[in-house]
Amino acid sequence: MDLSIEHLTHRYSKEKIALQDVNLHLQPGITGLLGPNGAGKSSLIRILATLTRPTRGKLLWNGEDITGRPQVLRSRLGYLPQDFNAYPNLSPLEFLDYVAALKNIPSLKARKQALELLDALNLSSALHRPIGDFSGGMRQRVGIAQALLGEPDLLILDEPTVGLDPEERVRFRQLLLSMAKERIILISTHIVSDLESAARQVILLSAGQVVFQNDTRALQDSMKGKVWQHLVPEAELQHLQRKWVISASVQQADGVLVRMLGTTPPHPDAQPVTPSLEDAYLFHTRKEEVFHAQLAPRLG
Ligand SMILES: Nc1ncnc2c1ncn2[C@@H]1O[C@H](COP(=O)(O)OP(=O)(O)OP(=O)(O)O)[C@@H](O)[C@H]1O
User: Fold this and answer.
1) ipTM
2) Which of 132, 125, 128 is nearest to 89 (CA)?
3) Where is the domain boundary, 173, 188, 220?
């Protein structure tokens, strides 16, 4: 099972190019789609979900060109849009029955799956309550359940963890991992740490282009020797933030422990640390700033 896009370009107008010559290959497992605001993530997702036809390029499902035949993919697709909204007067069970009918899932099978999914998403105690009374996080979980209904081969989730508390995020991650072996799962998110232990592959988009596509581990490995930690007096932090790309800072009794990105140590006493996915994301999306900082005089 695989989904590819070849030489995909998407323009909203003559001046507005959202995606430029993007090539991707997705296989079973979780792929994380990361990028700053406006990078083109939602445009790409809408194209893969067959809601937008690309200006140029091909969409291939199991090697077959389906650019002009979106229904081939639609029957195998589960999709959670960024602005998911269910009908407020329906209960989650009624809403999933409705979605199942649209997806042509036989009703008995659909009901069994709906109950399992709502249980896995911690909504069993609210099966018959109107969705309009739900919190944002509960509504989002109904959105996740409707996307998973019908055991889709391709699951596309745009910002799925928005509104979920940390406990629900962990539960969601476990549910996805349990399903990831036999389906392609693409997740767009701003919460980089959500992907750290779950995604086998990461795609970084920046200004409509793919700047990185590889294993999560390879991405982290590519950052070895580029992440540094150094304790600085609190008064220096602001000055430092203007010059260096800082991925984290932790207040301590004797100063601030700052995590910085650079291909050489920012200070003779700075210690190299194990890179995280967040470090890699910042490095690739703010490369120019990282290299600009390198040219500045060393600290100390
Ligand atoms: N319908 C549209 N008409 C015109 N321009 C659009 C349209 N949708 C998106 N764009 C533009 O295309 C570019 C990519 O937008 P897109 O929403 O795909 O990015 P994104 O990475 O999903 O951003 P965010 O993280 O903010 O959701 C942006 O410059 C955006 O302004």
Assistant:
1) 0.96
2) 132
3) 220
